[in-house]
Amino acid sequence: MYSVKMRAHQDGVHISGAETICEAQTIPAVLQTFFDKGFQHENGAVDFLNLKIEKIADPLYPLEALPIIENTPHTLEALCEMHGITKEALDKGMGYIFDDTQYRGAVIVSAQTGKRLDRSGTKGVRVTHFCFEDHAHTPLVSTRIQDALTIATCITAFAQVKGELCVSDDLYYTTGYFASAQCGYHRIHHLKPVGTRDGGRVIFVDETLQIDDYIAFLQQQPKQVIRHER
Ligand code: PML
Predict the structure, then answer these.
(1) pLDDT on residue 58
(2) Is the CB of 144 inside a 6 Å radius of any atom of ligand 1?
(3) Closest C-alpha to ligand 1, atom 8
């Protein structure tokens, strides 16, 4: 199996990215899809596009995709409260999403205090080496939701993770989600105003989390997220 990744920039600013793990014979089709995605993006014209292929030696770690809750009856604040994430932690998490830094990955914070726990600076912790397999009869409506569900499933796989909040940094996409292993992937609309590149991912965790093991799992372990009909 091979890991295939794409990232596209304009003037050093991230425009779009994509990744999967596939068999050798599928690589050309994947490269074409990723190339098209990178070059035709609403965030802007691309002046740098990187395509990377790496052989994967370790077996894929299987994960059951979180269920998607389309019309959540809960507000973000209520979801956080239900998951033991304090208002202080949510406010600090929101601060990272709406600050001037465009983190490439997620910021990990204490669910109790909101204190940042990872040491990845402005880079953030990127979830990498994953793929998605769909065994459900009803397909997902977009590859954006597929990618977001895959990442959320990887992020929430450790018991000490209380929840993840994601706001898209795409200019015209204002839907985000709150995800947890306990309650699934809750889509939340209008999380930000249209026309801004604000956005990001915040992972709220219990401070007992072994952060180095968790980051190694997110970044190095090859992961396969499998979706079944519910
Ligand atoms: C992104 O691709 O920019 C993140 C998407 C988050 C929300 C996806 C959804 O609509 O459920």
Answers:
(1) 93
(2) yes
(3) 145
pLDDT of amino acid 213: 98
In short, whether 198's Cβ falls inside 6 Å of ligand 1 is no
pLDDT digits (tens, 9 = 90+) for 181-215: 999 999 999 999 999 989 999 999 999 999 999 99
Cα separation values, 171 from 76, 157, 195, Å: 21, 29, 5
Q: Which of 68, 166, 170, 192 to mutate to test the pocket of ligand 1 (most atoms within 8 A of CB)?
A: 166
Query: Is the distance from the beta carbon of residue 200 to the nearest atom of ligand 1 less than 6 Å?
Result: no
Dist CA 26 CA 23 (whole Å): 6
Helix-strand-coil split of the chain, %, nearest 5 = 25, 30, 45
User: Which residue ranges in the chain fall short of pLDDT 50?
Assistant: none
Ligand 1 pocket test target in 144, 150, 151, 164 with most atoms within 8 Å of CB = 144
Counting beta carbons within 10 angstroms of the beta carbon of residue 218, is it exposed (0 to 12), middle (13 to 18) or buried (19 or more)?
Answer: buried
Percentage with pLDDT > 90 across the chain: 88
